[in-house]
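In the laboratory, one determines a bound structure by crystallizing the protein with its ligand and collecting diffraction data. In a computational setting the workflow is compressed into a single prediction: the sequence and the ligand go in, and a structural description comes out. We illustrate the idea with zinc ion.
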Amino acid sequence: MKTIRNLCLAALAALLLAPAVQAQDLPRFEKMVRQLSGAKYQGRGYARDGVRKAGKYIAREFQKSGVDAVTLQSFTLDINTFSGKMDMWADGRKLAPGIDFSMREYSPGVHGEFPVYHVDTLNFDADRMFADLARPEYANCLVCCEFWFTYNHREAFSKLQKAGACPNAGLLYEWTSPIKFYKAYGEKVVDKPIVWVTPEAIAGVKTVRLNVDNEFLKGYPTENVIAKVEGRRHDGCYVFTAHYDHLGNLGWKVYYPGANDNASGTAAIITLAQYYAEHRPEYDMYFIAFSGEDANLRGSTWFVEHPVVPLDQIRYLFNLDMIGDNNPVQYCEVSDAGMARYGLFEQINAEQGLFQALNRGELAANSDHYPFAVRGVPCIFLENQEGDAFPYYHTPNDNMKTIRLDSYIPVFKLVTSFVEKDCLSD
Ligand SMILES: [Zn+2]
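The predicted complex, in structure-token form:
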């Protein structure tokens, strides 16, 4: 009896200790985020081929996950890059790229020493500014102004950007710290340099020296990485998307690791591919790592214009962008076509206690769900905003130190539970 009871206890213990069916994979998720945000991929930008190397790594990780097929969808883009010299001095004081200053994405390079003309924003008068700028002491100067002020006087300031319209050499736009290198897209280069600079770094400064190289890449080839897991049925599919490109370099020393934006979403869809490869799904599943997102949604726009699966076959699309944070309230956007089933997300979230709440915002062209949403695809965009990692996105400090891993598991559970229940609703 004793032996049998021990055997029973041993069996029970084995059962309790046995790993649950592998679903989310936090260690693998973290490992891939670390890899993608590392120096090897240089911020997954274009100038140093970081994005191409990252695409190859992602294709390998999809293969390792046991998916049925991995394909690369190539397209080209024109892109302005900064991966050479990136030096700035304000009255002889050296400034830090990415911290004290940054370049507007479509700025040309700039080399030389320039007087600074500070715009009088309290008593602004455009005619007086242009009269001042015609004076010899301001010949070839940089016009410095708080960015939002210029935004409200667009006509005057766009004149300052055009060659021949005014004798200034360029513009300094003040932006509060941390300076965000907002977009990688510069599908053009404007006539005059535009530098973002913090108010603290430029206050009262009389002379600026700049040594900044740019390189405009024309027809740069890049790839969307598409993995597929075959379902039992082929008359519909679910799609998981995440962009893997990021902002690349700001000079030869600084790169934007983009751990949260969006190594996090990329790593998450690879673990989702692994999950569905191990648990044969009802419908076909696609996992798309997009390039060109921070270059104006170029990868997802190319995809919807050249879809590998008819868009009307997509039962639901989940776009994960920045899920490496710790806000207990999860932000989302839902397309019009996706609203009919939005209640299912809320129901699952409440039943499983995943997030305190879902906070649904207005649909916007802020990530790769948008080109699908405007074409009538049911989709949801999940981004964990306003947590501890959020202030660092689009800065050189979006890295493994500032990322938070909290939102990965609840997001994983939310989307997999949705697919499971949605399949039953037929
Ligand atoms: Zn992003």
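Residues 243, 261-262, 293, 321-322, 367 surround zinc ion (CB under 6 Å). Keep in mind that any predicted model is a hypothesis to be tested, not a measurement.
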